[in-house]
Design a protein that fits this description.
This protein has about 350 residues and is of the alpha/beta class. It contains ten helices and 13 strands. It folds into two domains: about 190 residues, Rossmann fold; about 130 residues, Glycogen Phosphorylase B (Rossmann fold, 3-Layer(aba) Sandwich), CATH 3.40.50.2000. The chain is about 30% helix and about 15% strand.
Length: about 350
């Protein structure tokens, strides 16, 4: 009997995006006769445990990500948190070495977890940020990020390589010394033809306190909205719960199958401009309105880019009002090519002895 190669899949716990875009990868590993082992922390780990209750899962040290209450202090808050990050990365390295031995790991897929790699087994880093925006220190943050990526055997960028890409300058720059593979946009969803149930779906996620700040703002603005609304708060708890808040259907979170159905049934989606959300909405050809997390340069860039190319409008969180949703009608909506990832070829890295 040939034992299946065991692949550690470790997404960063920074909102839900890194975890959700690992779902299609985990499914592809299972289809291609590998044995995935999940490793993360916080809500990212909780989400994947709910999606794959039959798989082994391990808790990793937390980066303890927390955003500033005001966007202009975002970079300062990240700098203040840097000792925590370094401590967590060092703890990750030790944990990874122990996990490889204890769980007999044959390969690693790390989605932005900087310390989850090994010199002794094939290690892959997933990122859409070959260029890391940080204002006037972009050159430095990019150089530091690329230095870390070089410790991995390959870097997988979840995007198309051509002009029909979603990440723009973030994922498409010349990099020396990194084995880059463009694997196409990753989404756990499929587009389905169905009747519309909701005029507006709000999809929240991301670290606190900004998630809660936007939630409060949106509930206030929705008092002036007359359409049918589904509000998914992005709060992972033991069970998915629905409550009625006036005319609004409110869920704490939705598992993949229910979320896919709800997205397909919604005419318009309002969300953060996180890259995973953009990939999902492009796969479903949705009309969208984006409110980037204040001070997060990457989300601000992506929102502005999608607006400039005519796909979706956006605005600053402090400037949002519900009537701005009317602008969506003048935009094309999100879309992507039907790129089919060759997972057998992609995973061949893990077949080497």
């Amino acid at each position: 009997m040939i034992l299946k190669k065991r692949i550690l899949v470790a997404p960063l716990n920074w909102g839900l995006g890194h975890a959700t875009r690992c779902i299609p990868l985990i499914n592809a590993l299972l289809i291609n006769d590998f044995q995935p082992v999940i490793a993360s922390d916080g809500i990212a780990l909780a989400l994947l445990q709910k999606e794959f209750p039959h798989l082994e899962s391990i808790e990793l040290p937390s980066y303890q990500v927390k955003y500033a209450k005001k966007g202009q202090f975002f970079k300062l808050k990240m700098l203040q948190n840097s000792p925590k990050f370094i401590k967590a990365i060092n703890a990750e390295k030790k944990a990874t070495s122990a996990i490889i031995k204890t769980y007999h790991i044959n390969g690693i897929i790390s989605d932005n977890r900087l310390g989850v790699y090994s010199k002794h087994i094939p290690s892959v880093f997933i990122t859409h940020q070959l260029k890391v925006l940080s204002g006037n220190t972009t050159w430095l943050s990019t150089k530091m990020h690329q230095k870390i990526i070089k410790r991995f055997d390959e870097c997988w960028v979840p995007d198309n390589i051509g002009e029909d890409n979603l990440s723009g300058d973030l994922g498409h720059i010349d990099v020396f010394g990194i084995q880059i593979k463009y694997i196409g946009p990753l989404s756990r969803f499929e587009k389905k033809e169905c009747d519309s149930k909701y005029d507006l779906m709000i999809l929240l996620s991301g670290p606190e306190p900004q998630r809660s700040i936007l939630e409060k703002l949106l509930f206030e603005e929705l008092k002036l909205y007359e359409g049918r609304v589904l509000f998914v708060r992005g709060v992972i708890e033991d069970v998915s719960k629905k409550i009625k808040k006036g005319p609004i259907d409110v869920y704490n979170f939705m598992a993949s199958e229910a979320l896919e159905k709800a997205l397909n049934e919604s005419k318009l989606v309002l969300s953060r401009s996180g890259y995973t959300t953009i990939m999902d909405l492009a796969k479903l050809h949705k009309r969208a309105f984006f409110i980037p997390t204040p001070g997060q340069f990457e989300q601000e860039y992506l929102a502005e880019r999608l607006s400039n190319i005519g796909f979706a409008p956006s605005c600053k969180q402090s400037e949002f009002s519900i009537d701005q949703l009317n602008a969506v009608e003048t935009y094309e909506g999100l879309k992507t090519t039907n790129y089919k990832t060759n997972y057998k070829k992609l995973f061949s890295l893990f077949q080497s002895e």
